[in-house]
Amino acid sequence: MKTGKRYRNAATTAKVEEGKVQNLPDAIERLKATATAKFDETIEVAMRLGVDPRHAEQLVRGSIVLPHGTGKKVRVLVLTKGDKEREAREAGADHVGSDEWIKKLNEGWLDVDSIIATPDMMGEVGKLGRVLGPRGLMPNPRSGTVTFDVAKAVRDVKGGKIEYRVDKAGNLHAPVGKASFGKEQLLANVETLLREVVRTRPPAAKGQYIRSVTLSSTMGPPVRLDPATVQAAFKA
């Protein structure tokens, strides 16, 4: 694959070799050394899992709160009524309401990163599946975004909660912070994600569960981890 000059220079500077397997602390050091863009690059974890998501019992999905957040300012809409509106606003929600916001969403407004809804709103929110589903914005009880405890849900999302889910090929991608984060902050975030993915291994998954683990920054070269070591380190 042809790569740009900046990418090649970064890889050379950090001595990142194609196919090289690193331990996690070294991988993070190398990622920070190669994240030389003029903006604060996002650090992402990509994993290939030994599952077949076509079977519901092998679907890997969930949500976790990263201890140091993602470094991204998250815009939150809470769809609710009555006293829950006040709770949502006090917790820091950017937008709060019911019918007026459902109308805006139907009209194509999507200037938001996360949507939380109380269960009594799901009759109307469910009709927005074709709009919200493809964009990953549909509230879901499993991810904690359908709840009457809107204050906690807002604080979790604002504080660094992320959702993860394997795609149809068994791949999983998740942001774990910014290049400006300290090494220990990134290490804690990555470990939290890896531990959760290992913990939620479906019982129906056979053979090697973690096939590959790669860390990368937005513009820098990827660094691969030893999947067997990752699985052993975080196995309960």
UniProtKB/TrEMBL annotation:
MF terms (GO), sorted A to Z: rRNA binding; structural constituent of ribosome; tRNA binding
Record's keyword terms, sorted: Repressor, Ribonucleoprotein, Ribosomal protein, RNA-binding, rRNA-binding, Translation regulation, tRNA-binding
GO BP term, example: translation
SUPFAM superfamilies linked: Ribosomal protein L1
UniProt key word Transmembrane helix: no
Protein name: Large ribosomal subunit protein uL1
Stored InterPro entries: Ribosom_uL1_bac-type, Ribosomal_uL1, Ribosomal_uL1-like, Ribosomal_uL1/biogenesis, Ribosomal_uL1_3-a/b-sand, Ribosomal_uL1_CS
Organism this protein belongs to: Eiseniibacteriota bacterium
Gene name tied to this protein: rplA
GO CC term, one of those recorded: large ribosomal subunit
Function as written in the Swiss-Prot or TrEMBL entry: Protein L1 is also a translational repressor protein, it controls the translation of the L11 operon by binding to its mRNA. Binds directly to 23S rRNA. The L1 stalk is quite mobile in the ribosome, and is involved in E site tRNA release.
